[in-house]
Amino acid sequence: MARIKKEDIFYTLLKEFSDKLLEAAEEYKNIVCNYPDSFSRVPQMKVYENECDAEVRRIMEKLYTSFITPFEREDISELTNALDDIADDMNGVVTRLDLFNIHEMREEGPQMAELTLRCVQEVREMIHLLPNYKKDRRVMEHAAVISKIEDEGDTVYENALRRLFREKDNGRNAVSWLREFDRMEGTLDACDRVAYIVRGVVMKSA
Fold it and tell me: What residue ranges define each of the domains in the chain, with the CATH number in brackets?
């Protein structure tokens, strides 16, 4: 009977991290899409951010004590931190709804939150396929989809700013939303950064 090869611990840890990140993205999308009714859920994003920080520590502690890794140590570290950036940015968006005293959601906010959830879903699928990245082309396919969704986000972001600054009497509200949209767009950029790192890992093995 053939012996089943045990999965490398780093793949397991990265998968668990991506699972937690998807939970956070679902909460993020629900908060933004239902705001301001979802205001009481804002602190939950900080909980998710802390849990993602704990995932980073687990991976880094293992990295410091491991002599052999499934791909380059620097790439594991960079990928881990890039995943954490997504969680940080989602929390930053939600926190600013409170800090900027935003009482009404603009229509582009839910659009960008839904794109973020789609991106994170693709990130999770990509990470779960990573153990077989040398043979499974779907890893690169998911990376390409992430970049495509990020491009969609750029269009929504540009339309949001165009509409924001063409409205009259926006005042301080315009500045608050400018910074909010910047952070939302940055969240999508963080997802694309993860895809970029994974593409690099795949190309190094080609």
Answer: 9-204 (1.20.58.220)
Q: For the chain, where are the alpha helices, taking DSSP H only? A: 9-33, 42-65, 73-99, 108-129, 138-166, 172-204
Alpha-carbon distance of 107 to 166, in angstroms, equals 15
Average pLDDT of the chain to the nearest whole number: 94
**Mutual orientation of helices 138-166 and 172-204 as an angle, nearest 10°?**
160
Give CA–CA dist 54/48, Å, rounded.
10
The pLDDT tens digits of the residues spanning 22-37 come to 999 999 999 999 999 9
CA distance 12 to 2: 22
Query: pTM for this structure?
Result: 0.94
Query: What distances in angstroms separate CA 106 from CA 7, 15, 97, 163, one per listed residue?
Result: 45, 34, 11, 10
